[in-house]
Write a structure and sequence with these properties.
Elements lengths: L7 E5 L6 H14 L7 E5 L5 H7 L6 E5 L16 H7 L3 E4 L2 H5 L5 H13 L3 E6 L3 H5 L3 H15 L9 E4 L13 H19 L1 H4 L4 E4 L7 H5 L6 E4 L6 H8 L3
Helix pairs in contact: 1-2, 1-11, 5-7, 7-8
Bound molecules: phosphoenolpyruvate.
Phosphoenolpyruvate binds next to β8.
Amino acid sequence: MSAPIRPVMAGNWKMNHGPTETARFFAEFLAVSRPRDDRSVVFFPPAISFAAAREAIAGRPDILLGVQNVYWEAGGAFTGELSVGMAADAGASLVLVGHSERRWVFGETTEETVRKVRAVLDAGLVPVLCVGEKIEERRAGREQAVVEAQLAPVIEDVSLDEARSLVIAYEPVWAIGTGVVATPADAGAMHRFIRRALAEHYGHETGDAIPILYGGSVKPDNAAELLSVDDVDGVLVGGASLDPHGFARICAAG
Ligand code: PEP
């Protein structure tokens, strides 16, 4: 599958909204969020709520679903993990890879993100590779070096053809769940840096077409400003995607 059309409005529910709450969320969200063909809306519910989400959006082909994490093996004795084949079978189109909570709470390494992106692409799904620096790295002026170190090994492994299915999310760790949002200038500078790296590697035609999402304390009242920044092709929203009315406002922004 190719990357969804831009802008991409994505909600990452993390470990929130079980199946009952998921059904309740969509009953409210679908009542206030009309389908639009000028953007994509994506939800990443917890795996246990995926079936409830899929059932709820049955009449809305404009809404895509993804999973928050996968393991690269096809199956077997890996308690607690999901394979990409299972995610595809359940109806997932996208997979988050390398979210900062996976990296910094669960110790996921960049080498592991490379293997996960490979498995996701081999299954025909779209990986959303999350990259971003910690506050001490930004204070030390190392934010671009950190993001480059997370991005480069992945794009080394992804062919020109496969890059049409790639999505990048810039999520500064210090902005996730903190209420501290990157300024449009800081977000713009990093998105430009990522765009340049993609265009240098894949050429402009493909590199410029890869959606680069911003994530980190996006709310209904700051989404439009962030979306107006050059090279910000959508948003990845955590906390504010849990509220159906607030997330519907974000999906309508820009
Ligand atoms: C996220 O989980 O990807 C995220 C950006 O969280 P929040 O919007 O709550 O900062």
